[in-house]
Design goal:
mainly beta; three-stranded antiparallel β-sheet; 0% helix
């Protein structure tokens, strides 16, 4: 699973070859937080690619991405990790 920042139009991921020599402003970069025993939180406009190669664009200011691989709404977290024994949590 990957998460990529979107281009200015908001529909295509930004590729390394498309980026200017100047780093983007802090607001343009996605922020990623790994929650202990829980999901990956992504803040910003990104495209998430799931295990099957399907691309999903974030639609919320902060999106929770499943890391336990048991969500019914993959790639998004549905809270299933809370039902798992601690040894099976991410």
């Amino acid at each position: 699973m990957t998460a990529e920042p979107l281009d200015q139009r908001g529909d295509q991921p930004v590729r390394a070859s498309d980026r200017s020599a100047e780093p983007p402003d802090v607001e343009e970069r996605p922020t990623i937080v790994l929650c202990p025993e829980g999901p990956m939180l992504v803040r910003g406009d990104v495209v998430v690619e799931d295990d099957d190669g399907n691309r999903h664009r974030t639609e919320r200011p902060v999106s929770a991405i499943c890391r336990c691989h048991r969500s019914a709404t993959k790639p998004w977290c549905d809270g299933t990790h809370k039902l798992l024994p601690k040894k099976l949590r991410p």
